[in-house]
Description:
Distance between the termini: 54 Å
Shape: elongated
Largest sheet: 11 strands, mixed
Number of strands: 18
Mean pLDDT: 96
CATH topology of the largest domain: Tachylectin-2, Chain A
Amino acid sequence: MVTVKSEPKRILDALVNAPKGSRLAEHSFYEAASLRKFGDLYYFIYSTHKNHELCYATSKYPDHGYEYRGVIISNGDIGYQGRTEKERLAATGTNHGSIEYINGKYYIFYHRLTHNTAFSRQGCAEEIMIGPDGEIGQVEMTSCGLNGGPLMAQGEYPAPICCNLTNGKMPHLSNAKKNRYAPNVNHEGNDRFIKGLENKTLIGYKYFEFHGETGLKIVTRGNSGIFRVMTEIGKVAAEIPIEESGSWKESERVSFFAEGMKPLYLEYQGRGRADFLKFELS
Length: 282
C-alpha cells in the first residue's frame, strides 16, 4: 500500500454504536480486525466485547455493507450447543485470530489461555466449514488442530493439548487484576504440563479414534489420588491410582474398551493438588 485513497471508514459497530437489541449488540466489534475474501464475499473476523470469542460479518464489498453473521469459536466453548458462561469448559479470556485456507480446508486459528493469566496464550486451530451462503457455524474446541481428523489412540501425547480443563468454576481471566486460582497449562524450563489439579478437575481431549481395548498410563507429580478414565461423562471405564511424588512419576498401565471416534476424559480425584505432564495410549 502506497497511497490512502479515502478517509477511514467504520465498517462494523462497537458496543457504544451497535443498535440496541440487535444481534450485533450482543457480539459487537472490540479489537483484532482481520479481513479475508472467499468466493464473492469479504469476511471481517474480529474479537468481541465479550472477550472470549471470534465472530464474523460478511459483505460483497471490502469497506461497507457488512452484516453480522455469528460466532466462529469461543475459547471456553461458550455458546456452542447452548453452553452458558457458567458452564465454560476452560478459563476464558481475550481471543484473537482469523481464517486460513490450507490444502483444501478452512481453519480458524485462535488461542486458549495458559498460566492462569490472559497474557499467556496457546495457539490453536480448528477446521471450519463455509456453507453455500457463506455461513460458518460455531465450532467446538478440540485437541486435533491441523491433524485432519481424530488423533490416533496410540503413542505419547503432552497433557497441555487438552481442549477442556475445568474444576466446575473456571474464571474469566483479566489483564487488569489478579485472577483467582484455577488449574492451568503451565511450564518449567522445557516441560509443558497442567498445573494444580484439584479434586474433581476434568481434563478433556477431543477426539481419538479408538479400536477396542486400549492401554493408558500417565505421568504426574504432587499429591496422591485417582484419575478416572472416561470416554463419556459419568461413565468410568478405568481408574489410575497415582502416588505422592515430588518429581515426575509414571503410573501403572490400565486398560479400557472404546470403539470409534470418542473423547478421552480424565478426572482427578484427591486431596491437595497434582500436576500432569503427559500420557501414553497403546
